[in-house]
Amino acid sequence: MTALVFFKLLAIFIAVGIGWFVGRMRWLGEATEAGSAGGNDPARVLSNAAFYIFVPALLFRTTARLDLAQLPWLTLAGFFIPVLILLLLVYGVQRWRGAFEAEPARPSVQAITTTFGNTLQIGVPLAAGVFGEAGLAIHITVISLHALTLLTVLTLLVELDLARARPDAHGLLATLRSTVRNTVIHPVVLPVLAGMGWHVTGLPLPLVLDEVLQMLGTAVVPLCLTLIGMSLAYYGWPKTWRRVMGLVACKLLVLPLLVLVIGHWGLGLNGTPLAVIVMAAALPTGSNALIFAQRYRTQEAETTAAIVASTLLFVATAPIWLALLSQL
């Protein structure tokens, strides 16, 4: 664990602590019942602001500027294939265990908690401090597709589940129609599609538009970190930690192990590319998981606890993975 990564972790916890203090003092107001007039607590209001304004700006700008021809596809496959395998496995297990009947969005929320890593606030300084410029370049390519891939797949899954659970659903065709409509007209998927459309034109983003998108996109990180602290203040800790620690174990141990096995022995990756994607998989749960959970009003307390616990435990698990990689 480098000093740079340690201070980044410390800064994250300070930002989360500020959010918790603001929420604890109720400076932004009290929580209200979901069914009452104006029924939204301040944490959910901030989450909606991130989901409908700041995250779409970041996704559109990233997609519009993405050069697909220059991406290291084999290295990316070594990361995203195991990530999607675990995502679908967790989702499928939750569906099989009946989580869908209790809360239709729960399987997808559990899946994002175990697969969506903090690739920006922690991942960037880790890659730069440990692997240098070459490693950072690989990590940036992972970031460029990380949210686009995972959020799009999970949005499709959760919208399909919600369409199936609606009492007015009529047959397969109606369910698919509703799913496609709600997936495309969505604050995550729509800016991705719009960004891809802009990229196809080959036109550069106008300077003013690019500046606005960059300004809005930079608000995602501080907003999400303070949102985690506020969510702790408003929702509290979960009543049982067994499920939370299971999600944390999947994120910090199972996912990087899958990436290591598939990347090294399946795709033949070695050296810096392999080390970078394994450590990207070993990162703690990212704050976008909480935004996703709050979007669908499911498992907010558990997701918040998983983010905090995985970030704390990352201090212990990261050196283990770095030591293991040094032996390959």
Structural class: mainly alpha
Which range does the strand content fall in? under 5%
Q: In the CATH scheme, what's the topology name?
A: Na+/H+ antiporter like fold
Q: What would the principal axes of the Cα set say about the shape? A: globular
Weakly predicted, low-confidence segments: 34-38
Instruction: Give the mean pLDDT.
Output: 84
- How many whole angstroms does the radius of gyration measure? 19 Å
Number of domains: 1
CATH class: Mainly Alpha
CATH second-level architecture: Up-down Bundle
Topology:
Blueprint: H1 3-25, H2 42-64, H3 73-96, H4 99-102, H5 106-115, H6 123-165, H7 171-184, H8 189-201, H9 207-217, H10 220-235, H11 242-266, H12 271-281, H13 288-295, H14 300-326
Helix pairs in contact: 1-10, 2-8, 2-9, 2-10, 2-13, 3-5, 3-6, 3-11, 3-12, 5-6, 5-11, 5-13, 6-7, 6-12, 10-14, 11-12, 11-14, 12-14, 13-14
Descriptive report:
By secondary structure, the protein is mainly α. It has a single domain, classed as Na+/H+ antiporter like fold (Up-down Bundle). 77% of the residues lie in helices and 0% in strands. The chain has 14 helices and no strands. The radius of gyration is 19 Å and the shape is globular.
